[in-house]
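Dock flavin-adenine dinucleotide; give full complex structure.
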Amino acid sequence: MRKKEEGTILSQKEIVPGIFDLRLEAPDAAAEASAGQFVNLYLDDPARLLPRPISICGADPTEGALRMVYRVSGPGTGTAELSRMEPGRTLSLMGPLGNGFPLGQAGEGRVFLIGGGIGIPPLLQAAGELLDLRGRSDHTDVILGYRDRNDFLAREFEPFGHVAIATEDGSLGTRGTVLDAIRAENLHADVIFACGPKPMLAAVARYAAEEAIPCWISMEERMACGIGACLACVCRTKETDGHSNVRNRRVCKDGPVFRADEIVF
Ligand SMILES: Cc1cc2nc3c(=O)[nH]c(=O)nc-3n(C[C@H](O)[C@H](O)[C@H](O)COP(=O)(O)OP(=O)(O)OC[C@H]3O[C@@H](n4cnc5c(N)ncnc54)[C@H](O)[C@@H]3O)c2cc1C
Ligand code: FES
């Protein structure tokens, strides 16, 4: 089984209200991490024994550093505790975990990277890896959905492709959802990779099915063990799973990335 590693916080700042950008020195995890994978972060409070899964937003194997961008989910929560941690202190983590995005499936085709809200961070690592893989950014459209004009990370995607923004309140980009932005800008793709809230993923999966576009989505479910042992994180699938003999898959171990047409929303 994968071992825990002691990371050291290099920096942490609030980039928009409630959203924090954490850089962690964790050479073992940084050496192996790829887009769509996550790490389990262990907090100090003995009441919070369960780890917090957070996606890899950036991995720099040369510097041995990981970047994570997360939302504080409320006062008194584990993510609130995490947000108070200062640079220089250590933090236990396990990872990288999960399967990651199969970016090789993009081939030479046009790609949509679709992110919604706190599902956006893992797509930044995906965008960088896709550019490394293909050596071109002109076949990549990054479509990002936000609540309002707090468009965290949006500018960082610009070197990796065309960036289209949708906001729920219409304060930036297209008013509405990521699919409204796709239609408004008349964008087309051969392959889709997406991460975001379930209703967005369900809509993207429907769109991909209608347009017959292969699509992979990163699912988020509440987790407990985070390593495939407890079945707390299962999502419903069309096929029977060999591990549990029922129609579900473990997001932490079998995912978090699945073919969109495998999932029952
Ligand atoms: C694969 C994966 C990747 C994720 N990546 C990110 C990310 O990059 N940035 C980000 O802000 N959030 C991410 N999340 C969600 C994040 O894990 C939760 O917001 C966080 O665990 C909430 O912990 P808490 O202590 O603040 O909340 P609490 O409600 O106090 O948590 C109680 C327990 O429930 C679990 N839990 C609560 N909400 C979630 C949730 N949405 N998903 C999984 N477990 C949950 C916690 O881990 C904890 O064990 C990801 C979740 C998954 C499954
Ligand atoms: S969280 Fe325990 S099996 Fe996924």
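Observed: The mean pLDDT is 95.
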